[in-house]
Amino acid sequence: MPSPSLTHHNSSEFCMELENVGISYGGNEAVKGVYMQIPRGKVTAFIGPSGCGKSTVLRALNRMNDLIDGCTIKGRVIFDGQDLYAPQVDPVEVRRRIGMVFQKPNPFPKSIYENIAFGARINGYRGDMDELVERSLRKAAIWDETKDKLKESGYALSGGQQQRLCIARAIAIEPEVILMDEPCSALDPISTLKIEEMMHELKKSYTIVIVTHNMQQAVRVSDMTGFFNVTPKADGDGKVGCLEEFAETETIFNAPTQQATQDYVSGRFG
Amino acid sequence: MAASESTDLFVLRRRPPQEKLVDQGFRQLAVLLASLVGLVLLGILLVVLFGSREAMARFGLGFLVISDWDPVGDTYGAFTAIYGTIVTSILALFIAVPLGVGTAIFITENLIPLRLRQLLGIMVELLAAIPSVVLGLWAIFVMEPFIRPGLELLHQTLGWMPFFSTVPQGPGMAPAILILVVMVLPIITAIARDSLQQVPPELRQAAYGVGTTRWGAILQVILPAAVSGITGGVMLALGRAMGETMAVTMIIGNSNNFSLSLLAPGNTISSMLANQFGEADGFQVSALMYAAFVLMVLTLIVNVLAQWIVRRLSLKYS
Amino acid sequence: MAPSTTPAPAASVFARSLDFRASLSRNRWNSFFSVLAGLFAVIAVIPLVLVLGYVLFMGGSLISARLLTELPPAPGLDGGGIGNAILGTIVVTLIASLIAIPVGVGGGIYLAEYSRSGWFAQFVRFGTNVLAGVPSIICGVFIYGLIVSTRVFFGQSYSAMAGGIALAVLMLPTVIKTTDEALKLVPQELRWGAIGIGASRFVTITRITLPAAFTPIATGVVLGIARAAGETAPLIFTALFSPFWPEGVFNPIATMSVLIFNFAIMPYEAQNALAWAASFVLVVMILGANLFARWVGRFTRA
To answer: Are the C-beta atoms of C88 and C254 separated by less than 8 Å?
Structure first.
């Protein structure tokens, strides 16, 4: 990486900044007016009721929404001093630096080894591939379970193992940010616990943004929490998502400033 | 940060221009290949229209109603062939639709064990795989001699009707209709089966729940729910029957003399093309192109209608 | 229509039996329709059994090494074989495949991967369906007007190339639809997985989605090739026929399907017999391809 941007990195404590972000699907507004500063090297959680647009905002952070027909975005998403939606920006390069883990485990129909090596190769990895595979699997806390069957299909693993394989796959390209869209929602409690433990390790090296439905999980893993809510649209026709409150996790769960946040975290709705 | 110490190992983190070029080029290639479909369709229309312009100029719409096809006198009317095309395909459908829909119901219901039903389904699909020309060969040497006594009986008993007024002498419209039945049966069965399987199982449960019998449910609930899909399939089969060439050409007799009788030799547009195109020259080619244009328009109307019906069905269930 | 209930005013007075009574009109109608549907199904498969039986019996008994390797005899003479027609069918089908598979797979990729719902994609899908409904003889007329009568290939009129292109036009919609539908079955998550780690569209398609959809695409393409190999109408006045061995792709060429057509209507028994033999070879090839495609499809689905 060129040195000027490196200095920019270290000088700023914020990794990504959202300025008045609004997202619509084919003219139908899903989220509006999101301002947010995501700190570097921390875990930031997005919580909120269904349909509040938290996954939509997450997918806007590495331009995954480009894949959805008719999805448009307003405002600016700043990463590394650049607006991700500036016309000259290449979304593929964005995703090479901001990786993503999805709700449903989605390993490729390839061997465990190839699942990891695939991403590294397309990112032009020149180092020792065996070493990278091992390091990534270790970081994702799945090395011991897979070291003897690296040539077997990724589908041969259990759901929880598959999800950790997908996290290892995202780690292998050594992104600066890892986005996780409800990574544990399809998993059993034990697998969930393993992934949460792993996230504490990962945040030493990466900035993590996670969407979760599970408030205990947000408390356990995150440093910062954003609470998204739905509000009626100005014209009274339907609802739109918005960021209700964004603060340190402790504050959100113990002393929120908004009544809606208080109601949500105490389980009164949602 | 920890990631940056090995970042220089990822030499493609910044994408080189070649990589973007490949990406863009691939997309453009795919667009180009997809647009070839439109170009081919346009090409077919232009070639046929261009080829038939002389005949169109000389005969106009009279071509459609004159039954005189005379290469020696160089005067042409396609009525015999148009009549043959429409009559053979519609009569074939009259026989094939009940057979096909009945078969589809039999395959989707659990009257016989699953294995047997699957076997029946595969056999009907394999029937669709047999080349038309092989069916034609079979029709000439096996089917036509076999059914001729039946056709003769038909002539003797119903000969007073214009449709059976001629003595069957081998090739003719009737055997052509029967071979068309064989050819469109798999299409109708396959589409009817798909439409029946798309009917939500809750509908059947609701019918059984109010105490209807199996066939009460089929005839009063399931078939009506599947009817637009089946109709679309029937229209597709009609289009196929009108354009079907080889088997019909080999058994219809290729006579350009108009006759109402189904037992007499006749012609269809496609068999006329198959028979005469290779040896035609001069003005006859133009007249044949005009006939091809008529066939295209007929099948186009039927197919677009079929697509419209099928689309209406999919909207209803989504 | 099946009348369903038997109104019985006295029924509430007496305890009604729940026993099945076959004599009820609703049960009679039920059995009647079941038997009728079964009868229709049997009628529907009779032609297959008969045609297969005759082709295997009439054609199979003639098969010999000579038949498969020799040229057809002059009209009126005995002996000979269909070697040139077998080779010709392979050549013409190969030309058609070499054109239709790349074009069709490319078009299908556009529909499924680049534009699922845009107006151009809708137009291409509609066009594909229309093209699939164009009678095969019209494909022949089209190629005759475009290639044969204009003599664009080195002044040659009828040629194997023209026949191959006519068959390619016929195959194209099948290949596009197969590819489009197979790619749409690939889970969206798999695509996201690749794109989420920075793969370009090109890499995602060629390395992840196309391999994942390979089996259904291959199955559909094999079925399309099998269908094209049996087509006659587009070949009669494009590839024409030849009593000799193929002389390159820019000359007329014999094919099994045209041989069957030409020889079936000849008044000579030797030629008729060769038509049956060619039918045997063609049907065995096509049914073999069909059963193979089915087997592969089932094998991988399980």
So the answer is: yes
Find the domain containing B121 and state its range: 55-317
Question: B9 CA to chain A: closest CA distance, Å?
Answer: 5
Distances (CA, A) of A10 to A2, A35, B124, B284, C248: 13, 22, 70, 84, 70
Nearest to B270 among C52, C135, C145 (CB): C135
Per-residue pLDDT tens over the stretch A53-65: 899 999 999 999 8
Cα C278 from chain centre:
18
Nearest residue of C to residue B35, measured between CA atoms: C124
Cα A27 off chain centre by: 25
Nearest to B126 among C27, C48, C169 (CB): C48
Interchain pair C193, A107: CB under 8 A: yes
CB atoms within 10 A of CB C98: 12
pLDDT tens readout for residues B242-268 = 999 999 999 998 888 888 888 889 999
Q: pLDDT band for position C30 (50/70/90)?
A: confident
Which CATH architecture best describes the domain C84-301?
Orthogonal Bundle (1.10)
Tokens coding B112: 């016989």
This prediction's pTM: 0.86
Q: How many CB atoms lie within 10 A of CB B290?
A: 24
Task: State both tokens at B281.
Answer: 């020259």
**Residue pLDDT, tens place only, B62-81:** 888 888 888 888 888 889 99
CA distances from A206 to A3, A11, A209, A218, A228 (A): 19, 16, 10, 17, 24
Cβ contact (<8 Å) for A119 and C199? yes
Instruction: Report the CATH number that the domain containing residue B260 is assigned in CATH.
Output: 1.10.3720.10
- B1 and A CB contact within 8 Å: yes
Distance from CA of B188 to the nearest CA of C (A): 11
